[in-house]
Amino acid sequence: DTKDGPQVLCVVRDMTDRKRAEADLRRQAQLIEASHDAIIVREPSGRILQWNAGAQEIYGWPAAEALGRVTHTLFQTGFPVSLEELEAALDRGSRWDGELRHTRRDGARITVESRHILVRGTDGIPAAVLETNRDITQRKEAEEAVGALNAKLAVANKELELRNREVE
């Protein structure tokens, strides 16, 4: 209210870009959640910050039980190198790829193809690690079975060679 009567102040702000960005973020979150691969965001120390449905599918723990826990402890991770070597490689190159042995909630041991990507803050200090894991247990078992069959075939071939020589 003023001496000349009521005054109205109106502020108009274009929120188109913000709404578009929010929609993009929702779409990205839906895609991450829909993945069958485990997509885990964790602190550099290993404490889980985010856990998608693919992680629950592979490991058996719901997000509510996994969040805040340390991945290496939760999964009883078997490393191909020491944890210190893996972390040093990640710090040097901001990325590590390899196979890890993990334990699921039901106690089953699985092999995962794993990729760790170090995300640094604007200050250059490590802020988070994006870890994606794909269960390759069946593929590894099939490779081992093929290897065992090949070894048996090699033995059988040698025996056939010996018999052929004896026959000759």
Blueprint of the fold:
Blueprint: H1 16-34, E1 38-42, E2 48-51, H2 53-59, H3 63-66, H4 71-74, H5 83-93, E3 95-103, E4 109-120, E5 126-135, H6 137-167
Antiparallel strand pairs: 1-2, 1-5, 3-4, 4-5
General description of the model:
The chain is an alpha+beta fold. It has helices at 16-34, 53-59, 63-66, 71-74, 83-93, 137-167, and strands at 38-42, 48-51, 95-103, 109-120, 126-135. β4 (109-120) and β5 (126-135) form a beta hairpin. The radius of gyration is 27 Å and the shape is elongated. The mean pLDDT is 92.
What is the residue-mean pLDDT, rounded to a whole number? Answer: 92
For the termini, the CA-CA separation is: 118 Å
The number of distinct helices, counting runs of at least 4 residues, comes to: 6
Biggest sheet details: 5 strands, antiparallel
The main sheet orders its strands as: 2-1-5-4-3
The number of distinct β-strands equals 5
Radius of gyration: 27 Å
Shape: elongated
The proportion of residues in beta strands is 15-25%
Specify the structural class. alpha+beta
Q: Stretches where pLDDT falls below 50 for ≥5 residues?
A: none
List the secondary-structure elements in sequence, H or E. Answer: HEEHHHHEEEH
- Helix amount, in percent? 40-55%
List keywords for this structure.
168 residues, alpha+beta, five-stranded antiparallel beta sheet, 6 helices, 5 strands, 24% strand, elongated
